[in-house]
């Protein structure tokens, strides 16, 4: 008897209010790292109606850098909002808005644990992080999430190119797959909600979304067999920060694996790589993807955990859900022989002190083809053999 189930993942566009906040926080981080690669940053943004607050804790060795950041912040926010395509009519005025800055120095108590006297870099916080990879897609990501990301990325593409000029920045997607015996069989349901101008008709909007967003991503031949839901409420004119408050770090499942594996709870955007919420999660993805890339398993999940101020992880666990050629215990040995998961080693191996983070903040931090995202690179062939082959 075959076992079947449905599984759903969602994504949101770069114009979703939470993603606007993520992008602003990561733009601040990138600016700081461009000035001082060793800068420490924990930046949060909140955007609602016509108001924006940027807050956080910062540390740098360059004199007056915090003062310079306060001067640069309005421009950084403006550039993000303009690049997304927001205007006063579509949800947020990138020029005329109320901006509040609450920028403070990093706690000395935290700093003494991170920059240790022995030269090691301690974890910037306690916490647990998960990495995941599977063979459902070439990029080793869950298929439902990969499709959901592509749909909202396509929405932004046709909006910005002028092909569908009546679309506005805010959008969400959701993809439900049918599975049999743990393998995807096909698409069951697709939901696409997109903000739009007030004068476009429902018929025109639905036709355009099907032809210019759904068909190019999912394949026109597949659409007749898929349940398609477009703008379920019937109208989506009021969107962006005008319709919903956005806060940094509220789309952690969109940012990671779409619910296909657990999440430790820590967000990424606005955090420098001494914060293991970010660097530890990137390293765990690198480990899990390397396992699948090496042909050792069809699925791999890695958990790593840290204590604030301590360089060594307090725990490391990997499982392949019965799809592996090694036992989970053997896999743990394989990982420890190849990966140094101390924060300083992670930062060095993945070159995480570069200003690369704003582009991570939309369409997922993983499964992306970008030369700057070194956590997606395969291990050298000489490191991928299993214990019995070495």
Low-confidence segments, ≥5 residues, pLDDT <50? none
Strand content: 15-25%
Shape: flat
Q: Give the assembly state of these chains.
A: single chain
Number of strands: 11
Q: What's the number of helices?
A: 9
Indicate the mean pLDDT: 93
- How big is the Rg? 22 Å
Main sheet makeup = 4 strands, mixed
Helix content: 25-40%
The chain-level structural class is alpha+beta
Looking across the biggest beta sheet, what order are the strands in?
Answer: 1-6-7-8
H/E element order: EHEEHEHEHEEHEEHHEEHH
Distance between the termini: 40 Å
Structure description:
With 390 residues, this protein is an alpha+beta fold. 32% of the residues lie in helices and 23% in strands. It has nine helices and eleven strands. The strands form three sheets. It has a four-stranded mixed sheet. Strands 4-3-2-9 form a four-stranded mixed sheet, with helices on one face. It has a three-stranded antiparallel sheet with strand order 5-10-11.
Topology:
Elements: E1 4-12, H1 17-35, E2 40-48, E3 51-59, H2 65-84, E4 98-105, H3 108-114, E5 127-134, H4 143-161, E6 167-180, E7 183-196, H5 202-218, E8 227-230, E9 246-247, H6 252-255, H7 276-293, E10 299-306, E11 315-319, H8 328-338, H9 343-350
Parallel strand pairs: 3-4, 7-8
Antiparallel strand pairs: 1-6, 2-3, 2-9, 5-10, 6-7, 10-11
């Amino acid at each position: 008897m075959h076992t079947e189930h449905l599984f759903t993942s969602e994504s949101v566009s770069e114009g979703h209010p939470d993603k606007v906040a993520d992008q602003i926080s990561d733009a601040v981080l990138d600016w700081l790292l461009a000035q001082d690669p060793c800068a420490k940053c924990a930046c949060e943004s909140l955007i609602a109606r016509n108001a924006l607050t940027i807050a956080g804790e910062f540390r740098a060795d360059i004199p007056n850098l915090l003062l310079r950041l306060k001067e640069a912040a309005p421009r950084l926010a403006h550039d993000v909002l303009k690049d997304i395509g927001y205007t006063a009519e579509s949800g947020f005025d990138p020029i005329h808005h109320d901006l509040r800055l609450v920028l403070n120095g990093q706690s000395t108590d935290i700093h003494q644990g991170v920059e240790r006297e022995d030269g090691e870099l301690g974890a910037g916080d306690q916490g647990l992080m998960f990495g995941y990879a599977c063979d459902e897609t070439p990029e080793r990501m869950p298929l439902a999430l990969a499709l959901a990301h592509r749909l909202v990325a396509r929405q932004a593409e046709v909006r910005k190119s002028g092909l569908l000029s009546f679309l506005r920045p805010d959008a969400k997607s959701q993809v439900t797959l049918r599975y049999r015996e743990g393998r995807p069989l096909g698409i069951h349901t697709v939901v696409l909600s997109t903000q739009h101008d007030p004068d476009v008709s429902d018929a025109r909007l639905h036709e355009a979304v099907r032809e210019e967003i759904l068909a190019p991503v999912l394949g026109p031949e597949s659409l007749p067999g898929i349940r398609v839901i477009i703008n379920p409420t019937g109208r989506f004119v009021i969107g962006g920060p005008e319709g919903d408050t956005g806060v940094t770090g509220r789309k952690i499942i969109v940012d990671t694996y779409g619910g296909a594996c657990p999440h430790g709870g820590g967000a990424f955007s606005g955090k420098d790589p001494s914060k293991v919420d970010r660097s530890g999660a990137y390293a765990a993805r690198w480990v899990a993807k390397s396992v699948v890339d090496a042909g050792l398993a069809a699925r791999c999940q890695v958990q790593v955990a840290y204590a604030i101020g301590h360089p060594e992880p307090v725990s490391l666990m990997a499982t392949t859900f019965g799809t592996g050629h090694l036992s989970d215990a053997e896999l743990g040995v394989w990982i420890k022989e190849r990966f140094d998961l101390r924060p300083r080693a992670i930062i060095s191996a993945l070159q995480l002190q570069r200003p690369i983070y704003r582009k991570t903040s939309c369409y997922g931090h993983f499964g992306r083809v970008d030369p700057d995202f070194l956590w997606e690179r395969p291990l050298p062939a000489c490191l991928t053999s299993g214990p019995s082959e070495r």
